[in-house]
Amino acid sequence: MSTQTAQSIDFTHTYPQQGFRLLELSPELLELLSSNNPPALYLKSPSSDAHEATSEVGTREYVNLCTPTKTFRLRQVHTSNSVHIIRPSDGSKSADDGTYEVERDELNLMETMTVIAKCGSTLEFDAPEEGTPTSPFLEKGLILYDSLSTDADVETSMLSANLSFSQKRRVKDEIFGDVPASMFQCESAWTELCAFVHENSSSHLLAGFRPSASVKLDVWKRTLEGSVIRAIDLAKQFLVKDLWNSILDDGEDEPFPWDLFQVVVRRLAEPPGQDELRSEIEEPKWANIDKTTCIRWVGETYLEAKAPAMTSAIEQSQFMKEWMDLLPESWRDDASVTHLTEGSYRYQNQAMIYFISNSERQKERKNASNSSSNTSRNWHERFKAQRKQ
Amino acid sequence: MPSVRLHPPVASRRDAQNHISNPLPQLLQTPSGLAILELQGTINLPPLVGDDANWTNSDSNRDGDSTFETPIGKLMFPDYSPLNPDDTKWMKRVYLYIGKYQRMTGEVKKLAKPLAAIQRRQGRREFGLARDQSVQVMEESDDRDQGLKGESSESDIDELDIVEIIKFKIIFSSRPEPVGIE
Questions:
Q1: CB of A277 within 8 A of CB of A309?
Q2: Closest partner CB to A9 (pick from B4, B76, B173)
Q3: Which is deepest, B85, B116, B134, B175, by most CB within 10 Å?
Q4: Helix extents (H) in chain B
Q5: Residue A136, SS3?
Q6: Are residues A314 and A231 in the same domain?
């Protein structure tokens, strides 16, 4: 055969080999990475003890790839072929020396491609992780805050208002590190849980807390009372500090940390624009409470606090009355069970109602989907069960 | 487990690698020079120890560790002409000679999904930009707390770079065939 027209490239193997991983890119991810200012991505896996927290049975270790807003489950796919990474080499020197002054003449010198790595597997995407909620992982990193400062065991120091933004950020980042979800999802779950950073009274270190339903309810009660006293219309824009001051009116110590108050306001506020990461508007000066969100949240929080299980079910008429009383005057008549999140409540007998927690709802949904998973179109999933046998 | 930062490809860093001219057809060239070659089976290399004559090049002056290349054979794109890069017929035929007497025939394929080549973030010497970025990380942490500073410089270990996005591969899926002496 003729080598006159065909260029012949020397092919070599470089020792030592380098470590490379190949990651298959979805069109969406490719676009993200090819953009002018591509964001950093994160590979996150849950902390080892988080499996219990999510009550996901049979999940093994896994890695999620997180863009700023989305999460994808990765899986490692082994190839029977040898996949090599090759790159040009000048064939006479160590390959990455980087100090070539000589202008190379392509015609005279034999050129070389050299194998620098072999990849036995490729990382591929599973479907985007939308089913798994972020909050159970986040909860794991938070301490339950279940009584206000008036109670003896949780002592609120007056420090709360003085925490700097970066101090809080650091605590949050540390907690988010163990949550296998994107920053946006972490922030959303943080607000969803009304989590806040506060000094841990026992260790005097900063930590993340999540208030119990009854604490949240108390915060809301005080907030509502404050707004009435100061005639602040929660539906219209108000200064968050004004509302806070209305709670402090009676000259007492802070009944609860400022950060807790703030996150509850944020939880109930008109949602920000879709594109904005919530962190960037973490401490809004102004806010207005979103009617629909507020009505639902107050109802569910009340139910969770007072009737968390079937055994503690309460009468619906009583629930409705209390719920209305916890709403701003003009919204009273809008309280209706249809405003509660689907599946968040259940009736016992006809007139008794109780709360179904998010994790229970999740479990039920999972069971429901498991029974239909035999029809899954994903072949890997279908064969997984057989392989294990 | 903590999260690992995966840095997107950086254009300037990739250009910096471009000292060596790339002998591959234009289509297979990437800014960093990296390409993917897939074959059925494995390449058997001579054992490491022993005869120095096996190694054509050994450059041992690099921080004490030596990098050397073992010749395997030759790679050829018989139908490729640099004068006519738009014609893609050449992609159908690639030869890989293993030694002198064995040849594999393969082809160039576009990957259904592009692959990102990921590497653990290198130390200072490899990429100029790696240093700049780690400085940035340090600065961010400066206003946080002193205690974290030490951590962030150490956490460089847990940072990965997407060094290249590769869209084509050279694949040899058939067995090698014997060929005569050139």
A1: no
A2: B76
A3: B116
A4: 11-16, 128-142, 146-154
A5: helix
A6: no
Look up residue A60 and give its amino acid: R
For residue A5, tell me if it sits in a domain: no
CA distance B52 to chain A (A): 14
Domain range spanning residue A231? 134-283
Give A-chain residues touching B24 at CB under 8 angstroms.
Answer: 9, 88, 113
Per residue in A97-149, pLDDT tens?
443 333 444 444 568 999 999 998 999 987 666 667 788 889 989 999 987 75
pTM: 0.75
Note the ipTM here. Answer: 0.75
Chain B residues whose beta carbon lies within 8 Å of the beta carbon of residue A20? 117-119
How many C-beta neighbours within 10 Å does residue A269 have? 20
Amino acid at A1: M
B139/B121 Cα distance (integer angstroms): 18
Asked if B67 contacts A94 with a C-beta cutoff of 8 angstroms, the reply is yes
CB atoms A21 and B76 under 8 Å: no
Instruction: Judge if A192 and A299 occupy the same domain.
Output: no
3-class secondary-structure state, position A297: helix
* Same domain flag for A249 and A322: no
Q: Number of folded domains in chain A?
A: 3
Tell me: do A251 and A216 sit in the same domain: yes
Would A384 be classed as within a structural domain? no
% chain A with pLDDT above 70: 74
A248 and A138 together in one domain = yes
- pLDDT given at position B48: 59
**Per the domain annotation, does A249 fall within a domain?**
yes
Q: B75 and chain A: CB distance < 8 Å anywhere?
A: yes
Per-residue pLDDT of chain B in tens (182 residues, 90 and over written 9): 568 899 998 865 555 455 678 889 989 999 889 999 999 888 888 765 444 444 444 444 444 457 888 889 999 999 888 787 678 888 999 999 988 889 999 999 999 999 999 998 865 434 333 333 333 333 333 333 333 333 333 344 578 999 999 999 999 998 889 987 55
Kindly state whether residue A326 falls inside one of the protein's structural domains.
Answer: yes
Chain B positions in Cβ-Cβ contact with residue A27 (cut-off 8 Å): 113
Measured CA angle at A379 (ends B118, B114), to 5 deg: 25
Same domain, A123 and A211: no
Q: Among A233, A248, A283, identify where a domain stops.
A: A283
Does residue A40 sit in the same domain as residue A120?
Answer: yes
A250, A283, A316 — which closes off a domain?
A: A283
Same domain, A258 and A187: yes
Smallest Cβ distance to A114: which of B5, B69, B115?
Answer: B69
